[in-house]
Design goal:
By secondary structure, the chain is mainly α. It folds into two domains: 1-53, Arc Repressor Mutant, subunit A, CATH 1.10.10; 63-190, no CATH class. The protein is 72% helix and 0% strand. It has nine helices and no strands. It has helices at 7-24, 34-41, 45-51, 55-75, 87-96, 98-106, 108-133, 144-164, 171-190. The protein is globular, with a radius of gyration of 18 Å. 27% of the residues are buried.
C-alpha cells in the first residue's frame, strides 16, 4: 500500500497520527480501536484503511518517521556527524515527547510491541549504515544483522530504563553511555574504528 502524497492525504495521515498520540496518552495502546482513531481524527474508515492496514501499521509508520527524520538530519549534516545510530537525536526526541513515551512504557501491554517495533526499525537502519561503511572491507567476524540487533537492543534497553526511571540523566549523558557500551563491541567485531 503506497500512501498518496497529495495535501488531503497528508492532512489525513497527520490527523490520524495526532489522534494516535492523544489517545495513547489517555489509555493503553491495546485498548485503542480503529474506531477510536477515526472518531478522534474525524476521518472515515475508508480513509484510515487507504493509508494503514491496521492501528499497528499507523504506530509503525510513526516510529519509522521519527527514525528516518533523524537519519535524514544526520545525513545532511544537521545532527550527529558520522553516527551509526542517531542515538542523541532519539534521546532528545523522546525527552521532548516525554508524556507520550512514558505512556507507552507505563501501559505494559504495548511495551513489548513498541519495543520490538522500535528495535526492528533501529536494527534495520543500523544495518544499512554498516553496509554502506563496509563497502570494500572484508566481511566482519560477526554478521551485520547480529551486530545491528545488538546495537538496537542496547539502545532500546537504555531508552526504556531511562523512561521508566523518569529520565534522571540528560539525553547527552545517556548518549555518551550508549556510545561507551555499544561502540567498542561493534568496532571490535568489525575490526575498524567507526
Amino acid at each position: 500500500m503506497q500512501p498518496k502524497n497529495d495535501r488531503r492525504s497528508l492532512r489525513s495521515r497527520q490527523q490520524l497520527s495526532d489522534a494516535l498520540v492523544s489517545l495513547m496518552q489517555e489509555k493503553p495502546y491495546h485498548g485503542i480501536t480503529v474506531q477510536d482513531l477515526i472518531d478522534r481524527a474525524d476521518v472515515g474508515r475508508s480513509t484510515f484503511y487507504a493509508h494503514y492496514p491496521d492501528k499497528d501499521g499507523l504506530l509503525i509508520s510513526q516510529l519509522s518517521r521519527v527514525i528516518e527524520s533523524l537519519r535524514h538530519d544526520i545525513d545532511h549534516g544537521e545532527g550527529e556527524s558520522k553516527s551509526l545510530l542517531p542515538a542523541l537525536g532519539l534521546f532528545r526526541h523522546v525527552q521532548g515527547h516525554f508524556h507520550l513515551y512514558k505512556a507507552l512504557v507505563g501501559w505494559g501491554h504495548n511495551l513489548d510491541f513498541v519495543a520490538s517495533t522500535a528495535q526492528n526499525l533501529i536494527s534495520s537502519s543500523v544495518e544499512t549504515q554498516l553496509q554502506a561503511r563496509l563497502i570494500g572491507q572484508p566481511p566482519p567476524s560477526i554478521p551485520l544483522p547480529v551486530l545491528s540487533r545488538y546495537v538496537a537492543g542496547t539502545f532500546v534497553t537504555l531508552l526504556w530504563w531511562w523512561l521508566d526511571n523518569n529520565m534522571p540523566y540528560s539525553a547527552e549523558q545517556m548518549d555518551e553511555w550508549f556510545q561507551q557500551l555499544a561502540m567498542p563491541g561493534v568496532e571490535a567485531a568489525l575490526g575498524v574504528r567507526l
